[in-house]
Amino acid sequence: xxxxxxLTGVSASAVALALAGGLPxxxxxxxxxxxxxxxLEEGQPVAEEExxxxxxxxxxxxxxxxxxxxxxxxxxxxxxxVTAEDIGKLPDDSIGESIxxxxxxTSQRLNGRANVIAIRGLxxxxxxxxxxxxxxxxxxxxxxxEFDQYPSEVVNQVVVYKSPTASLVGQGLVGTIxxxxxxxxxxxxxxLAIGAKxxxxxxxxxxxxxxxxxxxxxxxxxxxxxxxxxxxxxxAAYTDEPxxxxxxxxxxxxxxxxxxxxxxxxxxxxxxxxxxxxxxxxNGTFQWEANPNLMVTLDGFYSNFDDDQSKRGxxxxxxxxxxxxxxxxxxxxxxxxxxxxxxxxxxxxxxxGVVRNDVFQRQADLYSxxxxxxxxxxxxxxxxxxxxxxxxxxxxxxxxxxxxxxxGAGVGATDTIGFISxxxxxxxxxxxxxxxxxxxxxxxxxxxxxxxxxxxxxNNRIIEDELFQYRLGVGKEIDSFISGVNFxxxxxxxSKSLTPDEFFxxxxxxxxxxxxxSGALLRSTDLGYLGLGPIVSYDVxxxxxxxxxVLDPNTxxxxxxxxxxxxxxxxxxxxxxxxxxxxxxxxxxxxxxxxAINTEQNSTGVAFTDVDGDGNQDRVDLSLGDxxxxxxxxxxxxxxxxxxxxxxxxxxxxxxxxxxxxxxxxISYGINNNQADSxxxxxxxxxxxxxxxxxxxxxxxxxxxNIEKYFAGGAGVVAAQVFYKDLVSYIxxxxxxxxxxxxxxxxxxxxxxxxxxxxxEVNTGGGDFYGAELSATIPFDAFTEALDGFGVTGGxxxxxxxxxxxxxxxxxxxxxxxWVANGTLYYDLNGFSARGSVRYRSEFLADFTGxxxxxxxxxxxxxxxxxxxxxxxxQPGSALEGLSVYVQGQNxxxxxxxxxxxxxxxxxxxxxxxxxxxxxxxxxxxx
Length: 927
Prior knowledge:
By secondary structure, the protein is mainly β. It has a single domain, classed as TonB-dependent receptor, beta-barrel domain (Maltoporin, Chain A), CATH 2.40.170. The chain contains five helices and 47 strands. Strand 29 (618-641) and strand 30 (645-656) form a beta hairpin. The longest helix is centred in the N-terminal third of the chain and has 15 residues, at 60-74. Keywords: Cell outer membrane, Membrane, Receptor, Signal, TonB box. It is found in: Cell outer membrane. This is TonB-dependent receptor. Residues 73-175 form the TonB-dependent receptor plug domain.
């Protein structure tokens, strides 16, 4: 039978149970009573639906919003949340997009997908993500979870905690994101739901072999057995979708703006990228109510992730004058700019282009699960025991392939190329036909390989990430102002390793160049959006497989220097006191406590120095680490008035652990005789550079204050938030005093001391950041019944930072946006729903992944994303009861992702990426 959903409420006792240290309680959309026309306040009697035909069932998007409002109101933490509108149906196409619509939260797009999250203007490295309350490994290089790894169809709710409690294990500096799946015993009936959707990318199939249409399918089963004491939930989802990208990318900009030396594009490396995302995810939950006091919950999640990209484009050496290219400024169109003259148009001569046919493939298997035993005694005692496991096995293969008009600079045919530069990048007018296979051959066109004929590069990065977590806790309810006390212990053991596997790609048989086999030629790739026209296209993997190109191992020290093995062992203890006190016209609730964490971190890898005196850097196996404590007090206090006002005050000490690859032990070092550089004044001494296995976390003292007003029977809320964080320890690239006692002594002069310096990421003095947020969920029927079904939800956040780096200069925090805003205008009534959404973030320092996986950060421009959706759910009594259909449009204004130099010159564009619009149509059906 079809299942009718009802408005969800979250009781204070449910939230208290979550804070007591067990797994967070999921406010299931199937657990609560129906609501009357004026949605009832907590504690009011509710008539049974069978006895009151006037009951209005709130469902769909409005129910999702009502659940979020109830979660916010019932919690003593400062939080935001989003709940599935229906089984297997978040309000957006992906988890990242749904989270990015929450107040004070935004995202960075990758290949058009919202895959990483920024909270309160700060990037993903400053927050933590949990799955059902447990820490997770990630498909990325560091701690930040990429939300691509979770199919949205298996997620029931996401909660973003902006303030911590002592019992919240695994908290982040600016927030903690908890992704939750269905709990079967919280569902009121058995459920079987299936869904499918098709997608269309309006840029078309840009690369040969790519697609413009894709699809998703999903199914969910939930049932209860043995008099509702045993529950089972199973969800599975499969995705096969294309994403297309047209990109302009500049090497940089030459010139200084002085007369005769205008600022001009230094080089072009632009690609057409086609991505095929294939992902299979399955989630299962088994619950057993062993007796009225004991609940056993077993979770399992698996995701297979395959992101296959074809990247085809052309690389042009231009304004830097490299490889024989010439440029005459006197023939260019030069205009005044903030930094002097800027060449908007002109001509480059003697240009030798490099045609690129690259591939990038990320394959990952993610395993996660856990067992939870939760005891709730009749005498006020409670206890829980929880085990969690997460593992990610990932391979990230990148192959570059080069072709051109001949081997080496100054050998092949050259091009005369006109250009026009503006705020959208640079367009070109070449004279050569780069799609002619008689002109373009496989070779090293610019001699990048030196004495080696390097026709490409093969880089496979093998990452293993594994995490075990054990938790136990005991709680006791008390009938006083201190309403409860909770004590818990947690032990987390995480290990992450990177093994690089890299090769040069060369023509077979020692040839300097070789023709592209006619059988390997594919449909040419059109770079007409840049004026470059078509280029020759092929799949480099096939040329390696058939022996046209061969692999030669790269044996330089640069390769093992990238490898690392990091282990972290965290022992956490917490003590938390809950507060509840009735007062005239309301009550005071909250908690206070302290969390103490002992960290034992260790890094294994290879360091480099000349040990035997032959003048060459020798590889030295090393293991180095640190052990330290963090003590994190926290308090959350809420004054709840019967009039619907809630005032919150939160204070805490917060930390965020450093990026894992910054902890690597790979250090190159040697003897330094410069007394002026010596930290002790003694010479000779040791100096070096590389990773820093002694790095400590970011640390901050934080205060938050919220004012919230609930109305419309609890379905509406207006909230104002202000926050301040005193960042007492920051991480920045600089020079630090370092003890090399654990390292082999370099050959040559014996150092006077093992105390030297290290150029690496180091802990520095911090600074502060502060801000304010205003958010609202307003159903318009609160003002007039004529607007029943209409409403708006959204928020705006402002954050200001002032961070001093190691040199005392003001630094920009990665991912920081001063302004973030979002809003959704909706209509949802009688099965019909329609909504339009806008989200905005101001400029920020964006993370890019360079070749070899090295992180690169550039200033990204502000962006505004517009999405829309319409749908219809067939009503009870209809022949199609249980069926919902919908159509979605994403990025309707085709907003680009743009980065530039960190200067106010809008024409100095580094990246200009267009993802196009995406359209989706689908259905869900509940039996």
